[in-house]
Amino acid sequence: MVLYHASTNYHLLSCIVHKFAYNSDDEAELLLLEHIRPLNERDEFFKKLESFHFFDRVRKVPTQSFKLSNGLALDENSSEQDIKKVINNVSRAFENWFGEDIKQYREIYVCSDISPFGIYLNNHGIAYNYMEDASGMLSEGERYLSITKGNNKTNFIMNQYLGCSGRSENVKARLGDMKHQSKDFHDEKAVDFSIYDSIKNIIPDRIDDLLGFFGDKNGRADVKEKSCLLLTQDLNTLKIKDLDLQELMLTTIVDYVAPDYQLIVKPHPKDRWQNYRRIFPDAIILERVEPSELLPFELKRRVKIALTASSTSIRGVDRFAEKSYSFTTEIEYHRENIDSMYIMAEVLRELEITSGVMLKNINETQMNVFLDNANIKLGNGNILIDGENSAENTDEYGLVFLPFAQTQKSDFVIKAEFVPLKHSLMKHKTIEIPVLCNDSQYKDKLSSLEFNRHLKYTKSEINAKIMRNS
Q: What 3-state DSSP class applies to 415?
């Protein structure tokens, strides 16, 4: 018999797929945290899960009652004695509720070992297999820890003390999609587990059941050839904690990257507060509870672009998107930087430049989103974008953009006025970007260059003009 543990939709899908792909001959039980659904949806969801018979037994873990067993709250100043006391309290409360002989399970697979079950296992030195929290997260331990710290300080302190989040010596293997880990990731205990590959190559007969449970097995035939898929995020995992800022972040990246595309929005399962029907009134809004990892099996046509602010789900879209763009977590606390990056890319587009752009002291991932979207290739050339004005011998370049530099010395200045329309969250502002020009072929073009852009979802206008700096 095998035992699985999950707390999110991604975890649940991971457990179901792994069970049928690798443990189909075993009896399998599932421990599922109750907060996977809001209280008003909980009973119906668990009844539906049981009706699909993915597991021989499903047990709803009462996480709220375990919180009451903590005894006291922990923080960075808590003594080791207090930390051990809380760990023992939680471990004892889980053991009393569980009421089973843990030794009866041949294997234990745990998604989210910072839960009461994970605390119980590590407190008693019980071996288990760790399953990554989201695609590619085995290689992003620090990001995952920062999220847990923001969500629950007491859990974070216990996590650090016991070495949870897959770091414990009790972990036998760490399961994750190796294709989507960072390039420098290496872990002797890492075992490749791809949800997509497992479904496609091992259990294709389960596709209808998976779509029937999580989404719509009939697919969506009205996805057009030129379409953009937007993946949203749970506000609790973002650095920003403001719905208006989250909305502005999403509308601007859509307006900047896919202004004339059919838009398909896939809300994060826990992204419950935004009204995407209001924000993107003409978009296709997919099921919130459906894991994005199932989209390759649901959408009958590949999308042209998959887009996200910083969701890890973007790593799995290469199977059904021609291009995928993410802005890294930096967009969460410096969203305004992408305004300047977009303007520079549009200037280069207007100049009909297609290659030879070099980057320095700037978020290359973000800047390359706009360059790639404008069909402009990076490479050794005579155009430089320098975020800090640190380059020596700038006269060696034909064009030098200085978007964030404090300098009065430039040949031209890009002035981009952002004009909010009715109900816009964008503030009225003017961005000024100094430009050095050492190539006569560009000087004439720059002297007469101006353009306008309409931001449909952001409800704003951009009026840009390049002025000669006298």
A: strand
